């Protein structure tokens, strides 16, 4: 006898979302029913299958998402001959933002190779488990440069000799959030060398 009966979900069946982060989330759903047996489930995101499970597993983690984005997930249950539900539940989930970048207590910013008009700033990376989009460099509380997130050094130019300066660096996360606890340092430029 050919099985032509597709699995079904009870009325009011709903997908639950948990562990929602900027890049991933976990979906859990109720059991479907079938006249023979439910063989598996497919999770679709915008009509594309992003996860599959067996008929006994009713949870899946979806990765590779973008922060602050709305996604619609739909569930399909299948039996062993490929009949599939047409009444699977859907859910709209919004991913979260990355947290504000932060620095460890021992984060350091140093001023090296100090001359009369230049110096090199070097810093350690923040401890956040997220990529840094950029770093903002401050001189005497004024932002003087934004550098790439993979950078950890910057050459400051145009300084005056025998002058005290303060510097700070702040991290910028993938969605533009800026740290407020970046390391600082102070430096005094040297005099011009004695003419020979």
Based on the model shown, name its key terms:
single chain, 196 residues, mainly beta, 4-stranded antiparallel beta sheet, 14 strands, 0% helix, rod-shaped
Question: Can you walk through the features of this model?
Answer:
By secondary structure, this protein is mostly beta strands. It is 0% helix and 41% strand. The chain is built from no helices and 14 strands. The strands form 4 sheets. A 4-stranded antiparallel sheet has the order 4-3-6-7, with no helix packed on it. A 4-stranded antiparallel sheet has the order 11-10-13-14, with no helix packed on it. Strand 8 and strand 9 form a beta hairpin. The N and C termini lie far apart (104 Å). The mean pLDDT is 93.
Topology:
Elements: E1 16-18, E2 25-28, E3 38-45, E4 48-54, E5 59-62, E6 70-79, E7 90-94, E8 109-112, E9 119-123, E10 134-139, E11 142-148, E12 153-156, E13 164-172, E14 184-188
Antiparallel strand pairs: 1-2, 2-5, 3-4, 3-6, 6-7, 8-9, 9-12, 10-11, 10-13, 13-14
Tell me the distance between the termini. Answer: 104 Å
Please outline the major beta sheet: 4 strands, antiparallel
Low-confidence stretches: none
* Overall spatial form: rod-shaped
Q: What level of helicity do the residues show?
A: under 10%
Number of helices: 0
Mean of residue pLDDT values: 93
Reading side by side through the largest sheet, how are the strands ordered? Answer: 4-3-6-7
Structural class per helix/strand content? mainly beta
Number of strands: 14
Order of helices and strands: EEEEEEEEEEEEEE
Task: Using the CA coordinates, give the radius of gyration.
Answer: 28 Å
- Beta-strand portion reads 35-45%
